[in-house]
Protein backbone atom coordinates (compact mmCIF):
# COMPACT_ATOMS: atom_id res chain seq x y z
CA UNK A 1 0.00 0.00 0.00
CA UNK A 2 1.41 3.37 -1.03
CA UNK A 3 2.38 5.89 1.60
CA UNK A 4 0.66 9.24 1.15
CA UNK A 5 2.72 11.71 3.18
CA UNK A 6 0.58 14.06 5.26
CA UNK A 7 3.20 16.85 5.23
CA UNK A 8 2.79 20.03 3.19
CA UNK A 9 4.41 19.47 -0.21
CA UNK A 10 5.63 23.09 -0.24
CA UNK A 11 7.85 22.40 2.76
CA UNK A 12 9.84 20.07 0.53
CA UNK A 13 9.33 21.44 -2.97
CA UNK A 14 9.19 24.91 -4.50
CA UNK A 15 6.23 25.00 -6.88
CA UNK A 16 7.04 26.29 -10.37
CA UNK A 17 5.49 26.72 -13.80
CA UNK A 18 2.55 24.76 -15.16
CA UNK A 19 3.68 21.99 -17.51
CA UNK A 20 0.28 20.68 -18.46
CA UNK A 21 -3.19 20.09 -17.21
CA UNK A 22 -5.73 17.30 -17.15
CA UNK A 23 -9.32 16.80 -16.08
CA UNK A 24 -8.57 16.79 -12.36
CA UNK A 25 -5.72 19.21 -11.90
CA UNK A 26 -2.41 20.52 -13.11
CA UNK A 27 1.09 19.22 -13.60
CA UNK A 28 3.72 21.76 -12.50
CA UNK A 29 7.48 21.82 -12.44
CA UNK A 30 8.67 21.57 -8.82
CA UNK A 31 12.15 22.01 -7.30
CA UNK A 32 13.28 19.84 -4.43
CA UNK A 33 14.47 22.20 -1.70
CA UNK A 34 17.24 19.93 -0.37
CA UNK A 35 18.83 18.88 -3.67
CA UNK A 36 17.75 21.66 -6.05
CA UNK A 37 16.61 18.94 -8.45
CA UNK A 38 13.60 19.46 -10.71
CA UNK A 39 10.60 17.12 -10.75
CA UNK A 40 7.03 17.23 -12.03
CA UNK A 41 4.26 17.61 -9.46
CA UNK A 42 0.88 16.21 -10.52
CA UNK A 43 -1.72 18.00 -8.36
CA UNK A 44 -4.97 16.03 -8.25
CA UNK A 45 -8.13 17.42 -6.70
CA UNK A 46 -9.81 14.89 -4.45
CA UNK A 47 -13.60 14.59 -4.27
CA UNK A 48 -14.88 15.52 -0.81
CA UNK A 49 -18.45 14.33 -1.20
CA UNK A 50 -19.09 10.96 -2.82
CA UNK A 51 -21.77 12.26 -5.20
CA UNK A 52 -19.80 15.38 -6.22
CA UNK A 53 -18.67 15.61 -9.84
CA UNK A 54 -15.67 17.72 -8.85
CA UNK A 55 -12.42 15.90 -8.25
CA UNK A 56 -11.31 12.31 -8.18
CA UNK A 57 -12.13 9.51 -5.80
CA UNK A 58 -9.22 8.90 -3.47
CA UNK A 59 -9.40 5.24 -4.48
CA UNK A 60 -8.65 6.14 -8.15
CA UNK A 61 -5.56 8.05 -7.05
CA UNK A 62 -4.51 5.13 -4.86
CA UNK A 63 -4.85 2.88 -7.90
CA UNK A 64 -2.75 5.20 -10.09
CA UNK A 65 -0.07 5.38 -7.39
CA UNK A 66 -0.07 1.63 -6.83
CA UNK A 67 0.34 1.00 -10.55
CA UNK A 68 3.09 3.60 -10.96
CA UNK A 69 4.97 1.95 -8.11
CA UNK A 70 4.69 -1.41 -9.85
CA UNK A 71 5.97 -0.25 -13.24
CA UNK A 72 9.52 0.95 -12.86
CA UNK A 73 10.98 0.86 -16.35
CA UNK A 74 13.16 3.20 -18.47
CA UNK A 75 10.22 3.90 -20.81
CA UNK A 76 7.74 4.69 -18.07
CA UNK A 77 7.62 7.86 -15.99
CA UNK A 78 8.94 7.21 -12.47
CA UNK A 79 7.07 8.11 -9.29
CA UNK A 80 9.20 9.53 -6.47
CA UNK A 81 6.81 10.55 -3.74
CA UNK A 82 3.16 11.20 -2.85
CA UNK A 83 1.81 13.98 -0.62
CA UNK A 84 -1.75 14.36 0.57
CA UNK A 85 -3.63 17.32 1.97
CA UNK A 86 -7.34 17.65 2.70
CA UNK A 87 -8.27 18.64 -0.83
CA UNK A 88 -5.57 17.23 -3.05
CA UNK A 89 -2.95 14.58 -3.65
CA UNK A 90 0.36 15.52 -5.21
CA UNK A 91 2.35 12.92 -7.14
CA UNK A 92 6.04 13.80 -7.45
CA UNK A 93 7.09 12.37 -10.80
CA UNK A 94 10.26 12.23 -12.84
CA UNK A 95 10.37 15.44 -14.91
CA UNK A 96 9.89 14.63 -18.57
CA UNK A 97 11.23 17.69 -20.32
CA UNK A 98 11.27 16.77 -24.01
CA UNK A 99 7.57 17.44 -24.64
CA UNK A 100 5.06 15.23 -26.36
CA UNK A 101 6.18 12.83 -29.06
CA UNK A 102 3.89 14.46 -31.57
CA UNK A 103 5.21 17.97 -30.88
CA UNK A 104 8.66 16.60 -31.62
CA UNK A 105 7.47 15.16 -34.91
CA UNK A 106 5.52 18.28 -35.81
CA UNK A 107 8.67 20.39 -35.33
CA UNK A 108 10.60 18.22 -37.74
CA UNK A 109 10.48 18.63 -41.50
CA UNK A 110 9.60 14.99 -41.90
CA UNK A 111 9.63 11.71 -40.03
CA UNK A 112 11.62 8.84 -41.44
CA UNK A 113 10.11 5.39 -41.15
CA UNK A 114 13.27 4.34 -39.28
CA UNK A 115 12.54 7.02 -36.67
CA UNK A 116 8.94 5.82 -36.34
CA UNK A 117 10.31 2.31 -35.74
CA UNK A 118 12.63 3.60 -33.01
CA UNK A 119 9.76 5.37 -31.24
CA UNK A 120 7.47 2.35 -31.55
CA UNK A 121 10.17 0.02 -30.24
CA UNK A 122 10.48 2.03 -27.03
CA UNK A 123 6.72 2.39 -26.60
CA UNK A 124 6.38 -1.37 -27.07
CA UNK A 125 9.20 -2.11 -24.60
CA UNK A 126 7.33 -0.11 -21.97
CA UNK A 127 4.04 -1.80 -22.85
CA UNK A 128 5.50 -5.30 -22.86
CA UNK A 129 6.77 -4.61 -19.36
CA UNK A 130 3.42 -3.45 -17.97
CA UNK A 131 1.42 -6.12 -19.81
CA UNK A 132 3.70 -8.80 -18.32
CA UNK A 133 2.56 -7.50 -14.96
CA UNK A 134 -1.09 -7.79 -16.08
CA UNK A 135 -1.44 -4.03 -16.17
CA UNK A 136 -3.14 -2.23 -19.06
CA UNK A 137 -2.70 1.50 -19.64
CA UNK A 138 -6.11 2.06 -21.31
CA UNK A 139 -5.33 5.65 -22.31
CA UNK A 140 -2.55 5.38 -24.85
CA UNK A 141 -2.53 8.41 -27.11
CA UNK A 142 0.06 10.83 -28.45
CA UNK A 143 -0.46 13.23 -25.52
CA UNK A 144 0.54 10.47 -23.11
CA UNK A 145 3.78 9.60 -24.89
CA UNK A 146 6.58 12.02 -24.03
CA UNK A 147 10.30 12.46 -24.71
CA UNK A 148 12.59 12.47 -21.70
CA UNK A 149 14.57 15.45 -23.04
CA UNK A 150 15.28 17.33 -26.24
CA UNK A 151 18.91 16.25 -26.68
CA UNK A 152 19.09 12.44 -26.50
CA UNK A 153 19.60 10.72 -29.84
CA UNK A 154 17.56 8.66 -30.44
CA UNK A 155 15.02 10.39 -28.19
CA UNK A 156 14.05 8.47 -25.09
CA UNK A 157 10.34 7.68 -24.80
CA UNK A 158 8.37 7.86 -21.54
CA UNK A 159 4.78 6.69 -21.15
CA UNK A 160 2.82 8.91 -18.78
CA UNK A 161 -0.67 9.19 -17.24
CA UNK A 162 -1.69 5.93 -15.62
CA UNK A 163 -4.96 7.48 -14.45
CA UNK A 164 -7.09 4.96 -16.36
CA UNK A 165 -4.67 2.04 -15.98
CA UNK A 166 -5.87 -1.20 -14.46
CA UNK A 167 -4.11 -4.11 -12.81
CA UNK A 168 -5.90 -7.36 -13.64
CA UNK A 169 -6.31 -9.98 -10.96
CA UNK A 170 -6.57 -13.65 -12.01
CA UNK A 171 -9.99 -14.45 -13.46
CA UNK A 172 -11.19 -10.87 -13.11
CA UNK A 173 -13.67 -9.47 -15.63
CA UNK A 174 -13.07 -5.77 -16.08
CA UNK A 175 -15.19 -3.35 -18.09
CA UNK A 176 -14.71 0.37 -18.67
CA UNK A 177 -15.91 2.82 -21.28
CA UNK A 178 -13.30 5.49 -20.51
CA UNK A 179 -10.80 6.66 -23.06
CA UNK A 180 -10.44 8.97 -26.04
CA UNK A 181 -12.70 8.12 -29.01
CA UNK A 182 -9.95 8.18 -31.64
CA UNK A 183 -7.84 5.64 -29.78
CA UNK A 184 -10.26 3.33 -28.02
CA UNK A 185 -10.75 -0.25 -29.10
CA UNK A 186 -14.14 -1.58 -30.34
CA UNK A 187 -14.58 -3.72 -27.20
CA UNK A 188 -14.39 -0.58 -25.03
CA UNK A 189 -17.22 1.02 -27.00
CA UNK A 190 -19.36 -2.13 -26.91
CA UNK A 191 -18.76 -2.49 -23.18
CA UNK A 192 -17.16 -5.93 -23.43
CA UNK A 193 -14.70 -7.29 -20.86
CA UNK A 194 -11.30 -5.72 -21.46
CA UNK A 195 -7.75 -7.00 -21.55
CA UNK A 196 -4.29 -5.64 -22.36
CA UNK A 197 -5.23 -6.15 -26.04
CA UNK A 198 -7.18 -2.85 -25.90
CA UNK A 199 -3.80 -1.08 -25.61
CA UNK A 200 -2.61 -2.88 -28.73
CA UNK A 201 -5.49 -1.38 -30.73
CA UNK A 202 -4.33 2.08 -29.61
CA UNK A 203 -0.80 1.18 -30.72
CA UNK A 204 -2.20 0.44 -34.19
CA UNK A 205 -3.89 3.86 -34.29
CA UNK A 206 -0.75 5.65 -33.04
CA UNK A 207 1.44 3.91 -35.64
CA UNK A 208 -1.01 4.87 -38.39
CA UNK A 209 -0.84 8.52 -37.24
CA UNK A 210 2.96 8.48 -36.96
CA UNK A 211 3.31 7.33 -40.55
CA UNK A 212 0.64 9.45 -42.18
CA UNK A 213 -0.25 12.40 -39.96
CA UNK A 214 -3.88 11.27 -40.21
CA UNK A 215 -6.08 9.75 -37.57
CA UNK A 216 -7.64 6.58 -39.05
CA UNK A 217 -11.10 6.69 -37.47
CA UNK A 218 -11.60 10.38 -36.85
CA UNK A 219 -15.03 11.67 -37.77
CA UNK A 220 -16.52 15.14 -37.41
CA UNK A 221 -18.06 14.24 -34.07
CA UNK A 222 -17.19 11.75 -31.31
CA UNK A 223 -20.26 9.70 -32.29
CA UNK A 224 -19.04 9.49 -35.86
CA UNK A 225 -15.54 8.52 -34.68
CA UNK A 226 -16.94 5.78 -32.43
CA UNK A 227 -19.13 4.57 -35.31
CA UNK A 228 -16.08 4.37 -37.58
CA UNK A 229 -14.22 2.30 -34.95
CA UNK A 230 -17.11 -0.14 -34.52
CA UNK A 231 -17.48 -0.42 -38.31
CA UNK A 232 -13.67 -0.84 -38.65
CA UNK A 233 -13.90 1.95 -41.22
CA UNK A 234 -10.33 2.88 -42.10
CA UNK A 235 -8.14 2.71 -45.16
CA UNK A 236 -4.59 3.41 -46.22
CA UNK A 237 -5.30 6.48 -48.31
CA UNK A 238 -2.92 6.21 -51.25
CA UNK A 239 -2.05 9.90 -51.09
CA UNK A 240 -0.65 9.58 -47.58
CA UNK A 241 0.58 5.98 -47.65
CA UNK A 242 2.02 5.59 -51.15
CA UNK A 243 5.55 5.59 -49.77
CA UNK A 244 4.84 3.61 -46.61
CA UNK A 245 6.36 0.14 -46.62
CA UNK A 246 4.08 -2.91 -46.89
CA UNK A 247 5.66 -4.16 -43.66
CA UNK A 248 4.47 -1.07 -41.80
CA UNK A 249 0.94 -1.48 -43.16
CA UNK A 250 0.99 -5.16 -42.19
CA UNK A 251 2.04 -4.13 -38.68
CA UNK A 252 -0.92 -1.74 -38.40
CA UNK A 253 -3.39 -4.25 -39.87
CA UNK A 254 -2.35 -6.89 -37.35
CA UNK A 255 -3.23 -4.46 -34.55
CA UNK A 256 -6.46 -2.97 -35.91
CA UNK A 257 -8.25 -6.33 -35.61
CA UNK A 258 -11.77 -6.28 -34.21
CA UNK A 259 -11.31 -9.45 -32.15
CA UNK A 260 -8.86 -8.60 -29.33
CA UNK A 261 -7.48 -12.13 -29.42
CA UNK A 262 -6.45 -11.72 -33.05
CA UNK A 263 -4.31 -8.65 -32.31
CA UNK A 264 -0.55 -8.89 -31.90
CA UNK A 265 0.66 -8.62 -28.33
CA UNK A 266 3.43 -6.17 -27.43
CA UNK A 267 5.82 -9.13 -27.39
CA UNK A 268 4.73 -10.18 -30.89
CA UNK A 269 4.98 -6.59 -32.15
CA UNK A 270 8.61 -6.47 -31.04
CA UNK A 271 9.24 -9.54 -33.21
CA UNK A 272 7.38 -8.17 -36.23
CA UNK A 273 9.71 -7.69 -39.26
CA UNK A 274 8.87 -3.97 -39.46
CA UNK A 275 10.04 -3.37 -35.88
CA UNK A 276 13.03 -5.68 -36.32
CA UNK A 277 14.13 -3.95 -39.50
CA UNK A 278 17.57 -2.62 -38.60
CA UNK A 279 19.04 0.77 -39.34
CA UNK A 280 21.69 -0.96 -41.45
CA UNK A 281 19.12 -2.71 -43.55
CA UNK A 282 17.18 0.51 -44.02
CA UNK A 283 20.24 2.48 -45.01
CA UNK A 284 21.22 -0.20 -47.52
CA UNK A 285 17.70 0.02 -48.90
CA UNK A 286 17.95 3.80 -49.06
CA UNK A 287 21.20 3.58 -50.96
CA UNK A 288 19.58 1.20 -53.41
CA UNK A 289 16.64 3.53 -53.86
CA UNK A 290 18.94 6.51 -54.38
CA UNK A 291 21.00 4.54 -56.87
CA UNK A 292 17.85 3.60 -58.70
CA UNK A 293 16.73 7.23 -58.75
CA UNK A 294 20.12 8.28 -60.08
CA UNK A 295 19.86 5.71 -62.83
CA UNK A 296 16.32 6.94 -63.48
CA UNK A 297 15.28 3.32 -63.60
CA UNK A 298 11.83 3.36 -62.04
CA UNK A 299 10.16 0.95 -64.39
CA UNK A 300 10.31 -2.23 -62.28
CA UNK A 301 10.30 -1.61 -58.55
CA UNK A 302 11.60 -4.57 -56.62
CA UNK A 303 10.13 -5.69 -53.28
CA UNK A 304 13.16 -4.53 -51.29
CA UNK A 305 12.78 -1.06 -52.64
CA UNK A 306 9.06 -1.03 -51.93
CA UNK A 307 9.74 -1.97 -48.34
CA UNK A 308 12.14 0.87 -47.80
CA UNK A 309 10.76 3.57 -50.04
CA UNK A 310 9.16 5.30 -47.13
CA UNK A 311 12.57 6.43 -45.92
CA UNK A 312 12.78 8.67 -48.95
CA UNK A 313 10.20 10.97 -47.52
CA UNK A 314 7.21 12.55 -49.11
CA UNK A 315 7.37 15.87 -47.29
CA UNK A 316 4.72 17.34 -49.56
CA UNK A 317 2.04 14.95 -48.40
CA UNK A 318 2.99 14.80 -44.73
CA UNK A 319 3.47 18.38 -43.49
CA UNK A 320 3.80 18.88 -39.75
CA UNK A 321 0.89 21.29 -39.79
CA UNK A 322 -1.38 18.55 -41.11
CA UNK A 323 -0.32 16.30 -38.26
CA UNK A 324 -1.05 18.98 -35.66
CA UNK A 325 -4.32 20.09 -37.17
CA UNK A 326 -5.63 16.57 -37.39
CA UNK A 327 -4.65 15.75 -33.84
CA UNK A 328 -5.72 18.96 -32.17
CA UNK A 329 -9.27 18.57 -33.36
CA UNK A 330 -9.52 15.21 -31.69
CA UNK A 331 -9.85 15.00 -27.96
P1 LIG B 1 -6.09 13.60 -18.32
O1 LIG B 1 -7.21 14.21 -17.55
O2 LIG B 1 -5.98 14.14 -19.73
O3 LIG B 1 -6.04 12.11 -18.25
P2 LIG B 1 -4.22 13.89 -16.19
O4 LIG B 1 -4.88 14.80 -15.20
O5 LIG B 1 -4.25 12.44 -15.86
O6 LIG B 1 -4.74 14.14 -17.66
P3 LIG B 1 -1.54 13.79 -17.19
O7 LIG B 1 -2.03 13.33 -18.52
O8 LIG B 1 -0.75 12.83 -16.38
O9 LIG B 1 -2.74 14.38 -16.33
O10 LIG B 1 -0.71 15.11 -17.38
C1 LIG B 1 -1.25 16.25 -18.05
C2 LIG B 1 -0.16 16.89 -18.88
O11 LIG B 1 0.91 17.31 -18.02
C3 LIG B 1 0.50 15.95 -19.89
O12 LIG B 1 -0.18 15.92 -21.12
C4 LIG B 1 1.89 16.53 -20.02
O13 LIG B 1 1.90 17.59 -20.94
C5 LIG B 1 2.17 17.08 -18.62
N1 LIG B 1 2.92 16.10 -17.83
C6 LIG B 1 2.43 15.02 -17.17
N2 LIG B 1 3.37 14.35 -16.54
C7 LIG B 1 4.53 15.00 -16.78
C8 LIG B 1 5.90 14.79 -16.38
N3 LIG B 1 6.23 13.76 -15.59
N4 LIG B 1 6.82 15.67 -16.80
C9 LIG B 1 6.45 16.72 -17.59
N5 LIG B 1 5.21 16.98 -18.00
C10 LIG B 1 4.23 16.14 -17.60
From TrEMBL:
Residues 300-331 are annotated as: Disordered. Residues 13-275 form the Protein kinase domain. GO terms for molecular function: ATP binding; protein serine/threonine kinase activity. PROSITE patterns: PROTEIN_KINASE_ATP, PROTEIN_KINASE_DOM, PROTEIN_KINASE_ST. Keywords: ATP-binding, Kinase, Nucleotide-binding, Serine/threonine-protein kinase, Transferase. One of its GO terms (biological process) is positive regulation of apoptotic process. InterPro entries: Kinase-like_dom_sf (IPR011009), Prot_kinase_dom (IPR000719), Protein_kinase_ATP_BS (IPR017441), Ser/Thr_kinase_AS (IPR008271). ATP binds at residue 42. Pfam families: Pkinase. Its EC number is 2.7.11.1. It comes from the Eukaryota. One of its GO terms (cellular component) is nucleus. It is an enzyme of class 2 (transferase). Belongs to the protein kinase superfamily. This is non-specific serine/threonine protein kinase.
Amino acid sequence: MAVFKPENVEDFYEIGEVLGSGHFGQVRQVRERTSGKFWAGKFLKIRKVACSRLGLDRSSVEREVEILQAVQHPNIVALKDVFESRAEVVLILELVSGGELFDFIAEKENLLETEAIEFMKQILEGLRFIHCKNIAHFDLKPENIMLSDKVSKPPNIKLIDFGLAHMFHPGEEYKSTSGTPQYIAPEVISCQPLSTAADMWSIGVITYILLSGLSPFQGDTDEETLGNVIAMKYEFNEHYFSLTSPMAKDFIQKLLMKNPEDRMTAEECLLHPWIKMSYNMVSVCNRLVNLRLLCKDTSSPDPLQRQCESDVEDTESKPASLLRRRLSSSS
